[in-house]
């Protein structure tokens, strides 16, 4: 409030009037007002962003759980198949040959390599998650062992291809041999039939035909 002296005839008095507000006073008043809308909007935005990230993480975990469940069923089926084969082998129900043994050995090496690689990735994921490491660090964990497993898998695949090529050539040769033997067999049967039907005439035989 401002004090203003007022002269009116013989009387003197004091009157009060409000002080005019200037631009500086208006700015100070605006600065003192709480910015409730801005803070509220910021909290809402961060909350929505966090919810989206959590939902995305949940979706990935559910996808991983589905894969793990299918992998579990696959493992159980493979174990059942191996048990059946063990039972058949113990009863001498499976023919043994060099090629089949080699093929089984190569297949086992390939399968063990892939399973080992998957196990390494899963172990790295669980270990880093438990220790609170960033997810991107999983890519650097056990990188050497993973590279070695991939190299072994590549070599196994190449050996399988070479063996398959050799088996194909061997089968082709055996097929040609079988065809040749069948042809010779047919020729011998025809000769035998002809010999029995038209026996050769002896030189001293005077039998008239």
Automatic annotation (TrEMBL):
Q: Which protein, by its recorded name, is this?
A: Suppressor APC domain-containing protein 2
- Where along the chain is composition biased (Basic residues)? 27-37
Residues folding into a coiled coil are 150-191
Region Disordered: list its residue ranges.
Answer: 1-37
Q: Which organism is it from?
A: Larinioides sclopetarius
Q: Which UniProt key words apply to this protein?
A: Coiled coil
